[in-house]
Amino acid sequence: MSVRSLCLAILSFGDATGYEIRKESTEGRFSYFEDASFGSIYPALARLEAEGMVTVREEPQAGKPARKVYSITEAGRTEFINSLCEPQAADTFKSPFLLIALNAAQLPPGVIRRALERRKAQVQEELRLLTSCEEGQECSHPGSSWTRDYGLACMNFTLAYLEEHGDALIKIAEDAARPLPAAAE
Amino acid sequence: MSVRSLCLAILSFGDATGYEIRKESTEGRFSYFEDASFGSIYPALARLEAEGMVTVREEPQAGKPARKVYSITEAGRTEFINSLCEPQAADTFKSPFLLIALNAAQLPPGVIRRALERRKAQVQEELRLLTSCEEGQECSHPGSSWTRDYGLACMNFTLAYLEEHGDALIKIAEDAARPLPAAAE
DNA sequence: CGTGACATGTAACGCGTTACATGATTAA
DNA sequence: TTAATCATGTAACGCGTTACATGTCACG
């Protein structure tokens, strides 16, 4: 999915500025789909406006540059919905953590421990994010709840698995670190 | 993770040709880390050779171009292990499927059904891949088993969740498709 | 007889990231 | 006072993809 579609997706849930879109795409609910940086969002927004997919309204602020609040138009909404109807790319999961796990026997136990802790912290953070959006805002939206529950279930499962089987992974590294266990008479 | 590291990672598990590396990175065990195409793999391999991280041995074949089998060197192995020791990027999950789920109420039920079936098929395929590697080859490697079991557990959970809650998602789309249910007296 | 797997490689192109440019306000 | 948050935007650069170029063999 391109940054263009990401902008349309986020704006279909409500008006936003470029700055806010970036936040949602890196930290918020939309981090599941794509994370984009300013350098791609601002040009994409400008292009979408030129094409009539969004409109802008400028809100001047003292000191800061004016907030440019974007709204999706009917044309934009139509394009977005249509794009969802045609076949999507497959889901992907990229895990530097699993690469470390795969090579556990070749790595110092400390590295494994840190990687495990880091991964757990990441999952907990995502969990926190998911539950925090439960209370606030416009989360009464039906698709939102389903998606949130799905994410919650997967994250909880992952966390439990890591908690239960993490030690086994550390043990792999520890066993390999002592290269001559048979020599221990 | 760059294509460079991917090549090193795969070669650290055994010799391979560029063609095989590409297969492993798109279909095989290493699809968790990065998927690369020929256009990036061949140049990366050439560079790695120039830097002494890998060596090549050419195996001429009748008709086909000679297989160029790459082996990792000590220097390459060291670089790879060192790269794993320093902080890695966070794991990412990108899901076009969840974007469809999020917008279930705005989409035709048929689209939701297809997306669900597609996602389930994908998970089943990954499951099949994971179990097939269980039997064959050099999977007695300890990190491999842990990683495989982790993948298996997550995929099984995901599949079960989709099977159990998929209907609820379809219902969201169906309910929204009939826009005036209150009018049904 | 055509499609797909095997097998390597280059060149053009696109997309997105990083770094830069600017600047006020607020919390530690 | 120093870092972080808010706020927009551009330009250079890197990395990877897509398409091209070439050719054999096996299977249906």
Automatic annotation (TrEMBL), chains A, B:
InterPro entries: Tscrpt_reg_PadR_N (IPR005149), WH-like_DNA-bd_sf (IPR036388), WH_DNA-bd_sf (IPR036390). Residues 8-80 form the Transcription regulator PadR N-terminal domain. It holds the Pfam family PadR. PANTHER family: NEGATIVE TRANSCRIPTION REGULATOR PADR (PTHR43252:SF6), TRANSCRIPTIONAL REGULATOR YQJI (PTHR43252). This is PadR family transcriptional regulator. The lineage of its organism: Bacteria, Pseudomonadati, Pseudomonadota, Alphaproteobacteria, Hyphomicrobiales.
